[in-house]
Amino acid sequence: MEKKEFVVFGLGRFGKSVATTLAESGCEVLVVDENEDKIQEMADIVTYAVKADVCDAEMMESLGISNFDGAVVAIGEDLEASVMVTILAKELGIPYVLAKAQTEIHAKVLKKVGADQVVYPEKETGIRIANNLLMGNFFNAIELSCTTSMMEIDLPESWEGQSLAELNLRAKYKVNVIGIKQHDVLNINPDADQILNKSDILVVIGKNDMLNKLASME
Questions:
Q1: What's the pLDDT tens digit per position in 187-202?
Q2: Residues spanned by the domain of 90
Q3: In this predicted structure, what is the pLDDT of residue 100?
Q4: Phi and psi at residue 92, in whole multiples of 5°?
Q5: Within this chain, do residues 167 and 112 fall inside the same structural domain, yes or no?
Q6: Separation CA 105–CA 176 (nearest Å)
Q7: 3 state SS of 129
């Protein structure tokens, strides 16, 4: 019988516990985190331990996790990263993705982008409120934390005819485009070479100040 293979993203208390338990149960386990000390701590416990940027799509693809049995997104405070990793894991074809949520709103977003199961190991006592904003060019905003939101933004006229790769929004504004809505149809994790049209609505995650800056563009 082949060993089951799992990847765990994020090595906080929850991630380390899950990875250790899976490894002790005889599974092949790959852990990924940006913190070198955490990677070294787990190196002798799991099968593979990799220090990497979990939001890097090319890096994710290079891990060769498409045929893994499942993924655990155990990223804590960085809510934007947890959503991005969930999207990328499903995009790569991992059949079962379990994601850790901080709040009910965070959980709804994770489920919407493809998480098969959401857990609350460190659930906050209060429930964050989803704020529907009517500011500038954007609407349908979901507050993930006091500093980070997911918003739908009407495509600025100056961006029409360009691709996501050309705009390079992650480098310029530190935001991630997780989807493009065209005629009420949402395309999750769009191709970087996709040419943008005037009627497109971008679904973007980032810091609130940067999102406000994008919303004011024409």
A1: 877 888 989 998 898 8
A2: 5-119
A3: 87
A4: -80, -10
A5: no
A6: 18
A7: coil
